[in-house]
Amino acid sequence: MVLGERIKRIRTFRGLTQRELGLKLGYEERNADVRIAQYESGYRVPKNNTLMEMAKILNVNYIHFIGVTPGKCNASDDKSVRYYDNDDWPAHAPVGMWLEYGLVNDFMREWCLRKEQLKSGEISEDEYFEWKINWPATSSSVDEKGNYKKNNSYKWRNV
């Protein structure tokens, strides 16, 4: 998902129109929606300071606009993830890569947990998306067995 698609996905998730977002960013009334439409279509690319302000307005972690996230873009609708934390071989298709990096391992473990919670109905689509776009602020400790401890700083659940 490219930057413009991410902006649109998160803007619509937050229930803002292009005009509303443009006005909150300080654009003039007459072209506020046009500028956001240009960003979303990829015709223009917002400057970093604009992206940082947009992240604040949309209540999302700035890293999701600059593309430095583990795995796929967190603003994506894709919910498929497979993470096998074992050494059993042969691996079955699809074959992935081996990572030995704490942050990526933590993210993948928690992503698997959230996927299962979504599948079982324990969390909603909106809660799942909120978790993704604000990770790592929404992260919890999930050990290698998938046990879950609530210690996140960002309240993403509607409970």
At a glance:
The chain has 159 residues and is an all-alpha fold. The chain has helices at 3-13, 18-24, 32-41, 48-58, 63-66, 102-120, 125-133, and strands at 141-142, 148-149. It contains seven helices and two strands; from the N terminus they run αααααααββ.
Task: Name a few traits of the molecule.
mainly alpha; 434 Repressor (Amino-terminal Domain); two-stranded antiparallel sheet; 7 helices
Strand content: under 5%
Query: What is the string of helix and strand elements?
Result: HHHHHHHEE
Distance between the termini: 30 Å
Work out the helicity level.
Answer: 40-55%
What is the total domain count? 2
Strand count, sense and closure of the main sheet? 2 strands, antiparallel
Task: Give me the count of strands.
Answer: 2
- Class of secondary structure makeup: mainly alpha
Task: Describe the protein's architecture and organization.
With 159 residues, the chain is mostly helical. Helices cover 45% and strands 3% of the residues. It folds into 2 domains: 64 residues, lambda repressor-like DNA-binding domains (434 Repressor (Amino-terminal Domain)); 90 residues, no CATH class. The protein has a two-stranded antiparallel ribbon with strand order 1-2. Helix 2 packs across helix 3 and helix 6 runs antiparallel to helix 7. 21% of the residues are buried.
